[in-house]
Amino acid sequence: MFAIIPRIINSGNGGIMATLISVVVPFHNEEANVEPLAAEIREALAVLTDFDYECVFVNDASSDGTAERIDALAGSDPRVRGVHLRVNQGQSAALVAGMQRARGAYILTLDGDLQNDPADFPRILEMLEEYDCVFGYRSHRRDTWVRRWSSVAANRIRMALLWDGIRDAGCGTKGFRRACVAYVPPFNGAHRFMGALMRAAGFSVAQCPVNHRPRLHGTSNYGVNNRLWRSIYDLIGVRWLCRRYVRLNIKEEE
Fold first, then answer.
1. Continuous H helices in 4-49
2. Is 75 a domain residue?
3. Does 130 map to a domain?
4. Does 228 map to a domain?
5. What is the pLDDT of residue 187?
6. Cα–Cα distances in Å, from 13 out to 18, 21, 61, 125, 245?
7. How many CA atoms lie within 13 A of 12 on its CB side?
8. What is the model's pTM?
9. If we measure between CA atoms, which residue out of 189, 185, 186, 183 comes closest to residue 91?
């Protein structure tokens, strides 16, 4: 529905112009994952000769060395930019902060725990040629039974109330055209309801299976109390917003 205006950059390769991709990753106490994830992103996108990329790494006021790792990487790699939140505000705040500061025509997202696989990016970019946003779903979860159970329960309740059709709202692997960013409101929990919000705004939505890997470093910031029960509470507000959403239809000047 919405036309994309590509962000074009000079790649420095004989004047060849490339479309810029922004990879946005929120981190909270994930110091061991910063460099490995940057290397995986570099490897995954190296084969896409029509694109260049930037990494927007958002530090959600980590108490470990995550901020220092991001800053060190940004100092050695011009493709990496660090964004630092002054206080811990949660995954949604970090994600929205990064998306708002992204410069690319396409915005791809991952979680900072290395469980999402950047190797899925080429497929998502291919789908973004046809759709405004693409949501990954983890066909084979590599989590504890508690996390799997709470995720399944939350997804079923969300779909029953919002009818958004999103199979796995908690999957961090997503892709958006730049026009979508303006329609992501910065509220706590927004990352779980992006599918419903995008549909309410009139964007076209697609889904694709993505790889999911076991966590190697750090500990999860989510459990039953702050995943399932809070998601149910947020559903009330999101359902109200979607039912009251107004799509502005402005007559352009001739």
1. 34-45
2. yes
3. yes
4. no
5. 79
6. 10, 17, 38, 22, 45
7. 1
8. 0.80
9. 189
